[in-house]
Amino acid sequence: MCDFADDCGDGSDEGKNCNSQYKTCSPQEFTCQNFKCIRKQYRCDGEDDCGDHSDEVDCKKENNTCPEGKFTCNNGQCIDSQLVCNKVPDCSDESDEPLHCNVDECAKVEIHRCGHKCVDTLTGYYCDCNHGYKLLEDGKACADIDECIETPGVCSQHCSNTPGGFYCKCDERYYERQNDEHTCKRKDATEPWLIFSNKYYVRNMSVDGRQYNLIHQDLMNVVAIDFDMKEEEMYFCDVTAKTIFKSKFGAIVDDVKIEKVPVIKHDSHGLEGIAIDWVGRKLYWLDRHSKNLDVSELDGTKRKTLKSGVVDPRAIVVHPGIGYLYFTSWHLQAYIAKMGMDGSNFTRILTWEDDIAWPNALTIDYFTDRIYWADAHLDYIAFADLEGRHRHVVLSGNKVPHVFALSIFDDMLYWTDWNMKAIIRANKFTGQNFTVIRNTTHRPYDVHISHPLRQVPYNNPCGQTNGGCTHLCLLAPPLESTYLNVEGYIEEGAPSYKCACPNQFYLARDMKTCIANCTSGQHRCGGADEKCIPWFWKCDGEPDCKDKSDEPESCPARHCRAGTFQCGNGNCTPSTTICDGTDDCGDNSDEQNCDLPCPVSDFKCRSSGRCILDSWKCDGDADCKDGSDEDPEICHKRSCDPDTEFSCKNGRCIPKLWMCDFDNDCGDDSDEPAYMCRQRNCTTGWSRCPGQSNYRCIPKWLFCDGKDDCRDNSDELPENCPKCNAETDFKCNNNRCIPKQWMCDFADDCGDGSDESDAQCKGK
């Protein structure tokens, strides 16, 4: 008895009386039908390790299913079903003659121990689960399937999991649940419009592509747009003009142009994504040159840097309903980040380790609280919840070769694609109903759906009194993440608010009042646009203050171009050369009054006031003429950040990313211990340089990009470059492959100009 063998033939010698004598199998073990424990890897290995063949029951062999009327042996062999349990082994592995032949194990619970259902088979049994449940790894217990997570497309909007099923809900303010109990149909009859930019134009069109209008033309490089439904205004940034404009909705009719008004035009040399907070009435934007994420009022006043050090930013979206914003960076260690709309709680929710390389596009489904993004290098569109969890890929491969921007409305996704030069739509869950709405002459950039339901009303915690703030009132994350409502249900907490000040202003002790902190090297603007501007913006020929106090009548006559600095000796010099430690004027007038504040990520030289990158401080090289960036007093006190920096033996701190990069960044080679660097594995999506003695790792997409990323040019050698598709690709002189449709489009996509050469483009 209780020896794991059915000696009686009916299982009675191994029944429930033996339970106390059988040991419980560990998670790393498989429980045989005779309660013996074997290692999990022994299951379905073709051998009877249990002694009753139960470890070889229901093992599915790939590409080896027998036709109807046949029995599949554990080794994949097919025999007639009548030969099973005939006391003669017809399978070469004898799996047709187990110990439990002609025994209905399902008749005794103490034998099968299935959680829900037991299914008897010719040679044994297997456990099955009721509808809406799945079998656990032990092959016996059942667990509820959370359809809302595992198959999110089962509901158009809200999904509630129930035991053995799920329940779909729609936002009853704007949608009705249909008879299929899954789909939500919009109540209003307002037609959505699609607004997009294709560098030189901004256009709108119906979502079916039949109506097509021009809003703005003669632009230089419009890459990002957003809109404000309340005021019926559109915002867009022109990278070449270094300006964010706004204009009224509409279209060009009879050559009558819609007026565009500059909103942001200073210190905006690398504009990328923009986002409108339609609840708190704020403008957010990213700048690749300054590496800043900034916020201001919708008219551009009260500008504040919320986060600095954002390298290679791309897209930004806001969710006023929860007080958070999301943005992307396509730096070497790319990520999608979540941050409070007040600049708090910065978190990378998805990183390069989650297959993020070029996160170009970003949008939010406000009715399902999901974030959608597209990767232009790995070629996919995916979504996750607002914490980056429960990720699902919607489309991948050649249908999404280079997505630039995304938008969403009802159950459809809309996006622009550079390779296809098209605007496309598909189902937001499955990618089905893939449709090219419109092809474009130039590459399409940003895209948005204009409709009131893309900016649903949320409560504004700043209220009618601006939260009591003298300047900026910014939406912020909830003070409590959840709360219990009057009906006893748990609900998400409402966003809060926080008073904030423009750059060079600070918050008083009451946490509401802003006080100016302009230096002697700055001019303070008054009126509604209180701010501190550099002294050399005064009398430069263009008003930078809304009250025009920087351009009084007392300004001397000018002959230099507006926006440039007129030296004391009459020479002209670009404003970028002022206070850089060099006498560009010849009379040193450009190096006077240099008491200017530096960005948060910079270090200010002591004597010249010049701003240098903070990473240059204490790096062993004197970047300030007075050597103040290498002051032993400063460098002695500095300690490296263990999370982001590597501590060199000479005391210098460098980013961890620079370690084992084949560069002597420390200056003493302590960041390049060859014996250790050669043993390090490259991170996901990266490859080791092909050079024989090179251990540097670079992202795979940097191979053959026209640049020596490996430091020995091994990543640019033809034998290490991908083979171009002769039908669809053009091979650049630097061995890079680009789509043929990118040729002769006035953009240097190769990086060496070979796709725009006269030889290629003559006559085109």
Automatic annotation (TrEMBL):
<keyword id="KW-0245">EGF-like domain</keyword>
<dbReference type="InterPro" id="IPR011042">
    <property type="entry name" value="6-blade_b-propeller_TolB-like"/>
</dbReference>
<dbReference type="InterPro" id="IPR051221">
    <property type="entry name" value="LDLR-related"/>
</dbReference>
<dbReference type="InterPro" id="IPR018097">
    <property type="entry name" value="EGF_Ca-bd_CS"/>
</dbReference>
<feature type="disulfide bond">
    <location>
        <begin position="579"/>
        <end position="594"/>
    </location>
</feature>
<feature type="disulfide bond">
    <location>
        <begin position="648"/>
        <end position="666"/>
    </location>
</feature>
<dbReference type="GO" id="GO:0005509">
    <property type="term" value="F:calcium ion binding"/>
</dbReference>
<dbReference type="InterPro" id="IPR036055">
    <property type="entry name" value="LDL_receptor-like_sf"/>
</dbReference>
<keyword id="KW-0677">Repeat</keyword>
<keyword id="KW-0254">Endocytosis</keyword>
<feature type="disulfide bond">
    <location>
        <begin position="732"/>
        <end position="750"/>
    </location>
</feature>
<dbReference type="Pfam" id="PF00058">
    <property type="entry name" value="Ldl_recept_b"/>
</dbReference>
<comment type="similarity">
    <text>Belongs to the LDLR family.</text>
</comment>
<dbReference type="InterPro" id="IPR026823">
    <property type="entry name" value="cEGF"/>
</dbReference>
<dbReference type="GO" id="GO:0042562">
    <property type="term" value="F:hormone binding"/>
</dbReference>
<keyword id="KW-0325">Glycoprotein</keyword>
<feature type="disulfide bond">
    <location>
        <begin position="44"/>
        <end position="59"/>
    </location>
</feature>
<keyword id="KW-1133">Transmembrane helix</keyword>
<keyword id="KW-0675">Receptor</keyword>
<feature type="repeat" description="LDL-receptor class B">
    <location>
        <begin position="281"/>
        <end position="322"/>
    </location>
</feature>
<dbReference type="GO" id="GO:0043235">
    <property type="term" value="C:receptor complex"/>
</dbReference>
<dbReference type="InterPro" id="IPR000742">
    <property type="entry name" value="EGF"/>
</dbReference>
<keyword id="KW-0472">Membrane</keyword>
<keyword id="KW-1015">Disulfide bond</keyword>
<dbReference type="GO" id="GO:0016324">
    <property type="term" value="C:apical plasma membrane"/>
</dbReference>
<feature type="disulfide bond">
    <location>
        <begin position="66"/>
        <end position="78"/>
    </location>
</feature>
<feature type="disulfide bond">
    <location>
        <begin position="560"/>
        <end position="572"/>
    </location>
</feature>
<keyword id="KW-0732">Signal</keyword>
<dbReference type="Pfam" id="PF12662">
    <property type="entry name" value="cEGF"/>
</dbReference>
<keyword id="KW-0449">Lipoprotein</keyword>
<feature type="disulfide bond">
    <location>
        <begin position="32"/>
        <end position="50"/>
    </location>
</feature>
<dbReference type="InterPro" id="IPR000152">
    <property type="entry name" value="EGF-type_Asp/Asn_hydroxyl_site"/>
</dbReference>
<feature type="disulfide bond">
    <location>
        <begin position="567"/>
        <end position="585"/>
    </location>
</feature>
<feature type="disulfide bond">
    <location>
        <begin position="73"/>
        <end position="91"/>
    </location>
</feature>
<dbReference type="InterPro" id="IPR009030">
    <property type="entry name" value="Growth_fac_rcpt_cys_sf"/>
</dbReference>
<dbReference type="InterPro" id="IPR000033">
    <property type="entry name" value="LDLR_classB_rpt"/>
</dbReference>
<dbReference type="InterPro" id="IPR001881">
    <property type="entry name" value="EGF-like_Ca-bd_dom"/>
</dbReference>
<feature type="disulfide bond">
    <location>
        <begin position="25"/>
        <end position="37"/>
    </location>
</feature>
<dbReference type="InterPro" id="IPR023415">
    <property type="entry name" value="LDLR_class-A_CS"/>
</dbReference>
<protein>
    <submittedName>
        <fullName>Low-density lipoprotein receptor-related protein 2</fullName>
    </submittedName>
</protein>
<dbReference type="InterPro" id="IPR002172">
    <property type="entry name" value="LDrepeatLR_classA_rpt"/>
</dbReference>
<dbReference type="Pfam" id="PF00057">
    <property type="entry name" value="Ldl_recept_a"/>
</dbReference>
